[in-house]
Amino acid sequence: MSLNSDKRRRGRPHRGRPKGPEFRPKPTETRHFRPSWEGWLYGRHAVLAALANPARTCRRLVVSPEFLAQHQAAIGKALAAGGPSPPAPQTLPRSEIDRLLADGAAHQGIALLADPLPELAVEDICRRAAERARARVVVLDQATDPRNVGAAMRAAAAFAAEAVIIQDRHAPPAGGALAKAASGALERVALVRTVNLARALGLLKKAGFWCVGLDARAESTLGQTDLTGKIVLVLGAEGEGLRRLTRDSCDLLAKIPMAEGCDSLNLASAAAIALYEAFRPKPTPRDA
């Protein structure tokens, strides 16, 4: 190859992919990718409850023609109860709604694009309960499954709990599958994320709460435990249970009695049983 042809080749504009460190994609450019379905709530109860919540900022409401025909009155009632400037329902075929959401989302023909609810801290829950004689809080240790957390929130709403507290690390987002499983409870019960569960339990204790950890190895049952006043029910993941530091931060441990051969319950099922035990009025002995 001649010198002149080499110069001509070096002088041509580069037609391929630019090279060099300045052209390499930065790792952070793809690390924070947000799925197109993030921010969507779906399912009848989850969406109608969100629409009726004045604390929610709702951006877009899509419904199938079938759902609109069957639930038009309920949608109108929820929109009237919610915040200002609610979104007008947009009618879409179910197949189009499918494309807006994560794969496998059981949307029932209705979905809502909404901003997250304002975040609350453990201190906020302590202030809310400051003047109350009775209050219930649920703490979930190592809860990572959105449906489990959502079902626990549904139980918390049913038994008038103030909040469900989860560790921020590995916790599921407060929307989508979690909101669907919560069946509207996400709008009624505070979902609080904290970095350190042991510290959160310490703050609750200072606020007058009594922390009861559920542990299959405990000597006393929930039925034998005084659950009046301000109570924190602390539950661990199925199988693994409470981590040592979380367990050591509890005031006492109690267990749910089960039939022989059964040693654990689903997290949400255990939460529902514990909340019921703390919620139900205690029987008084009949007069002789």
Q: What does this molecule look like?
A:
A six-stranded parallel sheet has the order 7-6-5-9-8-10, sandwiched between helices. Strands 1-4-2-3 form a four-stranded mixed sheet, with helices on both faces. It has two domains: 40-114, 60s Ribosomal Protein L30, Chain: A (2-Layer Sandwich); 122-279, SPOUT methyltransferase, trefoil knot domain (Alpha/beta knot, 3-Layer(aba) Sandwich). It is built from eleven helices and ten strands. Helix 3 (44-51) runs parallel beside helix 4 (65-81) and helix 7 runs parallel beside helix 11 (267-279). The model is unreliable at 1-36 (pLDDT under 50). Strand 2, helix 4 (65-81) and strand 3 form a beta-alpha-beta unit. It has helices at 3-11, 28-31, 44-51, 65-81, 94-100, 122-128, 146-158, 177-182, 197-206, 244-248, 267-279, and strands at residues 40-42, 58-63, 89-91, 110-114, 135-141, 163-167, 190-194, 210-214, 230-236, 252-254.
In brief, what are we looking at here?
The chain is α/β, with parallel strands linked by helices.
Count of helical stretches? 11
* Termini gap: 115 Å
CATH hierarchy: architecture of the largest domain: 3-Layer(aba) Sandwich
State the CATH topology of the largest domain: Alpha/beta knot
Overall average residue pLDDT: 86
Q: How many strand units? A: 10
Q: Outline the low-pLDDT stretches.
A: 1-36
Portion in beta strands = 15-25%
Largest sheet: 6 strands, parallel
Order of helices and strands: HHEHEHEHEHEHEHEHEEHEH
Instruction: Work out the radius of gyration.
Output: 26 Å
- What number of structural domains do the residues give? 2
Q: How do the strands line up in the largest sheet? A: 7-6-5-9-8-10
Name of the level-1 CATH class of the largest domain: Alpha Beta
Category from helices, strands and their pairing = alpha/beta
- Helix proportion: 25-40%
Q: CATH homologous superfamily of the largest domain, by name?
A: SPOUT methyltransferase, trefoil knot domain
Overall, the morphology is: elongated
